[in-house]
């Protein structure tokens, strides 16, 4: 158990709908990362938040957005869903930058999104 | 942009040492190299991370040559439970400037008795 929790575990929805995925980082971790894993694209970095602020964007579509709340949990919002958005969505957390080097990322169990 | 390349699959036998190499020719100065293990329907699990030379922990070693254009994950004496997909991740994990965290396509390791 990595200490990162994600809900829901599974989500089935229809095209055009909007969903929200939730992530709670490990206790003490300030950074949250979101990743998408699909068969054709592999693991892709979407976005990172650090202590409530957006830190970096990767391959995140404009239909997707995220935020990190004061209690450090994060939500990934996916709207106008398309069949191709079906994938595993992972959240990872880390303590954030430190003088000892790059922090380790710990991944949650993921949310499996199926768009029909 | 550091594109990463790994072998798609590898086979091994219990008790053998397994070395999986990841190529990242365009690695940037600030990039770190991290290896993850993933079982079906689970999130990737951190194995080891390094910047240069050699890093060792209780489960694996990571060898990074001086030019840093590749890295090799070494798993000593594998067991059946090491059957999984192994990913390398290259990117600026310290500050993530530009959001360029790049995963390899994964190496499916099959350990046989």
Question: What does this entry look like structurally?
Answer:
The complex is a heterodimer of chains A (116) and B (113). Chain A is an all-beta fold and 116 residues long. Chain A is built from no helices and 11 strands. Chain A has strands at 5-7, 10-13, 19-24, 31-38, 42-50, 53-57, 64-68, 74-78, 87-94, 106-107, 111-115. In chain A, strands 2, 4, 5, 6, 9, 10 and 11 form a 7-stranded mixed β-sheet that branches. In chain A, strands 1-3-8-7 form a 4-stranded antiparallel β-sheet, with no helix packed on it. Chain A starts with a strand and ends with a strand. The mean pLDDT of chain A is 93. Chain B is mainly β and 113 residues long. In chain B, the strands form 2 sheets. In chain B, strands 1, 3, 4, 8, 9 and 10 form a 6-stranded mixed β-sheet that branches. A 4-stranded antiparallel β-sheet of chain B has the order 2-7-6-5, with no helix packed on it. In chain B, a hairpin with a 5-residue loop joins β6 (61-64) and β7. The N and C termini of chain B lie far apart (40 Å). Classes of the chains: A mainly beta (116), B mainly beta (113). At the A-B interface, β5, β6, β9 and β10 of A face β3, β4 and β9 of B.
Which features characterize this protein?
heterodimer; A: 116 residues; 7-stranded mixed beta sheet; globular; B: 113 residues; mainly beta; 6-stranded mixed beta sheet; 4-stranded antiparallel beta sheet; 0% helix
């Amino acid at each position: 158990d990595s200490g990162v929790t994600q809900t829901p575990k599974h989500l089935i929805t229809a095209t055009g709908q909007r969903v929200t995925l939730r992530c709670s980082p490990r206790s003490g971790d300030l950074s949250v990362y979101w990743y998408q894993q699909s068969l054709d694209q592999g693991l892709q970095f979407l976005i990172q938040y650090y202590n409530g602020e957006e830190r970096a964007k990767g391959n995140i579509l404009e239909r997707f957005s995220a935020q990190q709340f004061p209690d450090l949990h994060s939500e990934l919002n996916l709207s106008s869903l398309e069949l191709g958005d079906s994938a595993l969505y992972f959240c990872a957390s880390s303590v954030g930058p430190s003088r000892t080097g790059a922090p380790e990322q710990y991944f949650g169990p993921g949310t499996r999104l199926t768009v029909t | 942009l550091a594109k990463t390349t790994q072998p798609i699959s590898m086979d091994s036998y219990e008790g053998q040492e397994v070395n999986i190499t990841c190529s990242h020719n365009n690695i940037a100065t600030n990039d770190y190299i991290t290896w993850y293990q993933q079982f079906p329907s689970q999130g990737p699990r951190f194995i080891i991370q390094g910047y240069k030379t050699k890093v060792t922990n209780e489960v694996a070693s990571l060898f990074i040559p001086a030019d840093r254009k590749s890295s090799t994950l070494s798993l000593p004496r594998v067991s059946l439970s090491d059957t999984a997909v192994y990913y390398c991740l290259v990117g600026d994990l310290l500050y993530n400037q530009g959001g360029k965290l790049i995963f390899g396509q994964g190496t499916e390791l099959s350990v046989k008795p």
